[in-house]
Amino acid sequence: MSQKPSYVEECIKDYKYIFRPDLLKGKVAFITGGGTGICFTIAEVFMRHQCDTVICSRKIDKLKESAETLSRATGRKCIPVQMDVRKPETIIKAADMALSEFGRIDYLINGAAGNFLSPISGLSFNAFKTVMEIDAHGTFYVSKVIYEKYMKNHGGVIVNITATLQLRGQVLQVHAGSAKAAIETMTKHMAVEWGMDGVRVMCVAPGPIENTEGMRRLGGESIDDSYLKGIPVQRLGTREDIGNTVLYVVSDAAQLVTGTTIIADGGDWLSSSNSYHQMQQLMKKKSMM
Ligand code: HXC
Ligand code: NAP
Asked: Going by CA atoms, what residue is nearest to atom 12 of ligand 1?
């Protein structure tokens, strides 16, 4: 049931610098899920601040296309590497490749994830396991490999991309919510054990972000004006919002910030509805139930 993104990733048309353009000069970021969506834009924002990047996921053709787009727009190096976050041997190979290319990994962004709408009754044992393995196990495996191969001796920052689903038990999201909750707890454990090595470990939790696969899968087409008016900041998030939030987290401005989550959702989770009945209607409309 895997779906291939049918669109070509595009860079930001008119990026407005908030931080110094050389903020990440000489640094290297390893970004899982960096070939598409939010993590593509995190890679772009980092590269616009003079960081080189390694982007990794399963689909090498998509990664190559995205790496070219990113390098063309920013003038920085971006290496595409095939890797499945559920398979430690592929992670070890990818980390070795990144270190032989750049000699360092300053930032790890764990963004790879899998998701779809499903009531608990519609989830097979394997469906729940699959999402837990991509999101939670994947985040653990990649963090452990990058910490042991580089950050243990050189420090660094790990940023795990979570969500707001787990904060209140979002309907039709038990698989992804459970996985993101596990990641947020794992983040605290890693922050306390690895802090003395100069490693900060953080989560950034986006709310609904426009122009993403996540939104397409989770009923984005049903978002209308009344939904937008219900969000405290009166709009959806953008990929650039999340890129800038993650940039702040890795920057020296956040040196005291570790083991916690920055929610970047404009207040959406505080105010949006969480109705099983409404979501059932949406899924029926999409013939998913
Ligand atoms: C119920 C489903 C399902 C669905 C798959 N499964 N889709 N069950 N409803 N819509 C079940 C399958 O039947 C199978 O169980 C099991 O899940 C594994 O499916 P596979 O297709 O074999 O898995 P795999 O090829 O590993 O693909 C993983 C995937 C796929 C998660 C299912 O969709 C994927 O690759 N996704 C990556 C991209 C993605 O999801 N992006 C969105 C991230 S956004 P059985 O029992 O039949 O074997 C995100 C949003 C957060 O996280 C919040 C937004 C607001
Ligand atoms: P996306 O473009 O589908 O990103 C998911 C990425 O994960 C893809 O690049 C995919 O690439 C990769 N991936 C999936 N399974 C993998 C595996 N087994 N090994 C390695 N890579 C794998 O979705 P997105 O919407 O931008 O989401 C990005 C992140 O933001 C996710 O962590 C998501 O949970 C989070 N988030 C998104 C939203 C939103 O509104 N979109 C809201 C809250 C949180 P391949 O297919 O090539 O493997």
From this structure: 127
Q: What is the structure's pLDDT at 136?
A: 99
pLDDT per residue as tens digits for the range 82-109: 999 999 999 999 999 999 999 999 999 9
* pLDDT band (50, 70, 90) for residue 2: very low
Antiparallel, parallel or unpaired: β 261-264 and 199-206: parallel
Q: State the ligand closest to the CA atom of 33.
A: 2
Nearest CA to ligand 2 atom 3: 213
Measure 105 CA to ligand 2 centroid, in angstroms. Answer: 21
What's the predicted TM-score (pTM) here? Answer: 0.98
Distance separating the N- and C-terminal Cα atoms of the chain: 16
Q: Which domains does the chain have, with CATH numbers?
A: 28-288 (3.40.50.720)
In terms of Cα–Cα distance, which of 235, 210, 230 is closest to 221?
210
* Pocket lining: 223 vs ligand 1, CB cutoff 6 Å: no
Contacts of 24 (CB under 8 A, 6+ apart): 46, 49, 50, 51, 106, 247, 250, 251
Q: Candidates 57, 91, 178: which one to mutate for ligand 2, based on the most atoms within 8 Å of Cβ?
A: 57
- What does the alpha-carbon distance between residue 18 and residue 196 come to, in Å, rounded to a whole number? 30
